[in-house]
Amino acid sequence: MKYKYAFFDLDGTLTDSRPGIINSVIYALDYYKIPYTNRESLNFFIGPPLLESFMNYCHFDEKKGLEAVMKFRERYNDIGVYENCAFEGIHEVLKKLKNVGLILGVATSKPHHLMLRVLEKYDLAKFFTAVEGSKID
């Protein structure tokens, strides 16, 4: 076998996290009374660090950007993290990869404790030998 390991991101690779992220971004934007065109116009919040996205989109300085991240997390940590779903067929793909001998891992910028919640909720944790998320800071 040419490869021994396969690493996956969580958001957008194993799960569709768009609804929970966008809903939580809207929660923060509404708090600051910042308008947005439509939900799709906020898709760029998915992927890059939230602080950077809030600073760019809202023209916030770092301090206010950090406040916006905290407002986002206020909703996301309890509600938004569960507004997602595992992609169709992902369990079968992961099972096949394990069955051919690959060691699977998850590496994500999502905070570690939230990543674990998602992996457990969608019965994905059992496929992975190594899982790493970011620290909250």
Walkthrough of the structure:
Helices cover 42% and strands 16% of the residues. It has helices spanning 18-31, 50-58, 62-76, 90-99, 112-121, and strands at residues 5-8, 15-16, 85-86, 103-111, 130-134. β4 (103-111), α5 (112-121) and β5 (130-134) form a beta-alpha-beta unit. It starts with a strand and ends with a strand. The model has no long low-confidence stretch (mean pLDDT 93).
List the helices and strands and how they pair.
Elements: E1 5-8, E2 15-16, H1 18-31, H2 50-58, H3 62-76, E3 85-86, H4 90-99, E4 103-111, H5 112-121, E5 130-134
Parallel strand pairs: 1-4, 4-5
Antiparallel strand pairs: 2-3
Question: Could you list some keywords that capture this structure?
Answer:
single chain; 137 residues; alpha/beta; two-stranded antiparallel sheet
